[in-house]
Amino acid sequence: MGEYEYADLIATYSANAGSFFAIYVTVVTGYLITAFVAGARLTRTQVLILSFGFIVSTFIAIWAAYGAGMTQVYYTEKLLGIEPGSPQIGRAWVMLLMGVLMFGGTAASLFFMWNVRRRNAS
């Protein structure tokens, strides 16, 4: 593959990772708004169903963003092998950090729901 094809693949996977991250942010925002507005009024069963769907959705978005990001890193390394001066900056540690932060955001959102329900139960 040539330099152009690698650069195109890098751009594609970078855009995909960004799209999956945007989906993640949308899901988290929806969950937090629901927790804040209606969390105390939801039944335990409703919260479990909502939280299960939230966890599945965020894990899929995290997996997809991480996978696209790591594919971007793979092709970036290939491009740097044939063109060391290329301005591409995809690095595996950035993708790992993104994944950790996204998992942390998911856990913090679940804690927020728990806190809203606990506070209003008293």
Total of helices: 3
Mean pLDDT: 93
How is the main sheet built?
A: none
Class from secondary-structure proportions: mainly alpha
Question: Would you count the extended β strands for me?
Answer: 0
- What integer value in Å does the Rg equal? 19 Å
Strand percent estimate: under 5%
Note the run of SSEs as H and E.
HHH
Helix content: over 70%
Task: Please state the overall shape, judged from the principal axes of the Cα atoms.
Answer: elongated
**Poorly predicted regions:** none
- Domains, number: 1
Distance between the termini: 63 Å
Could you please describe the fold and organization of this structure?
- With 122 residues, this protein is mostly helical.
- It has one domain (3-121).
- It has 3 helices and no strands.
- Helix 1 (3-38) runs antiparallel to helix 2, helix 1 (3-38) packs parallel to helix 3 (92-121) and helix 2 (44-82) runs antiparallel to helix 3.
- The longest helix is centred in the middle third of the chain and has 39 residues, at 44-82.
- The protein is elongated and about 65 Å long.
- The N and C termini lie far apart (63 Å).
